[in-house]
Write a structure and sequence with these properties.
Helix content: 40-55%
Strand content: 15-25%
Number of strands: 5
Order of helices and strands: EHEHEHEHEH
Distance between the termini: 21 Å
Structural class: alpha/beta
Number of helices: 5
Strand order of the largest sheet: 2-1-3-4-5
CATH class: Alpha Beta
Shape: globular
CATH architecture: 3-Layer(aba) Sandwich
Largest sheet: 5 strands, parallel
Radius of gyration: 13 Å
CATH superfamily: Response regulator
Number of domains: 1
Oligomer: single chain
CATH topology: Rossmann fold
């Protein structure tokens, strides 16, 4: 496995508090030290304006601004477009994956997943982002 910088700030964007806690717990267990969260894309853009993140992990289905809308906003912003972006969803329909690829997603994880699966997806996401830039 590739070495991942466990000090990089990670932003979790997830509207379900229980899922946010599960992901945070997994990341903490994987020794990531700087993990923030918010409940939707609008809040995420506010956080992204005030702190530099090394990775965004976003749910697809959220109120106010969905994960795909957040991805498009991030990719459309010169200050943010470099940030690796991983989408998580319980819906892995091919149409969604294709839509995310067209919007320049770096990684996709299907819920539910284990901590080891999450780490593997993060590693792939970071590698994919390095190839995109």
């Amino acid at each position: 496995m590739r070495s991942v910088d466990r000090t990089m700030p990670i932003l979790i964007v997830e509207d379900h508090k229980s899922m946010t806690q599960v992901i945070k717990s997994m990341l903490t267990g994987l020794e990531f030290r700087d993990v923030d969260s918010c409940a939707n894309g609008v809040e995420a853009l506010r956080k992204l304006a005030t702190k530099k993140y090394g990775l965004i992990i976003s749910d697809w289905d959220m109120p106010e601004m969905s994960g795909i809308e957040l991805l498009r906003a991030v990719r459309g912003d010169d200050d943010l477009k470099h940030i690796p972006f991983m989408m998580i969803s319980s819906n892995a329909q091919a149409q969604r994956v294709i839509e995310a690829k067209k919007a320049e997603i770096d990684g996709f994880a299907v819920k539910p997943f284990t901590a080891i699966q999450l780490l593997a997806r993060i590693e792939h996401c970071l590698w994919q982002a390095s190839q995109r830039l």
